[in-house]
Amino acid sequence: MSEPTDESQSYEEAREELIDVVRRLEAGGTTLEESLALWERGEALATRCQDWLDGARQRLDAVVTKGSGSEPE
Fold first, then answer.
1. Which domain holds residue 38?
2. Which residue has the higher pLDDT, 38 or 6?
3. Residue 15 located in a structural domain
4. Region 13-23 average pLDDT
5. What is the pLDDT of residue 13?
6. Residues 6+ away with beta carbon under 8 Å from 30
């Protein structure tokens, strides 16, 4: 369960898996070890999603900058 995120995993795939991890943690009924593994997986997925969003923001800023000829705010 605590395997690293797949670098080829899309944002949508990572987000859906993260939603599933959160649901499982909220539902309870897991051992402490399972809960820790889920938490670690969730952290890795959240980081992966944030990386995707940061990359998208950089791409948008680059397009806006190129189109307007000024630096992004």
1. 11-68
2. 38
3. yes
4. 98
5. 96
6. 24, 38
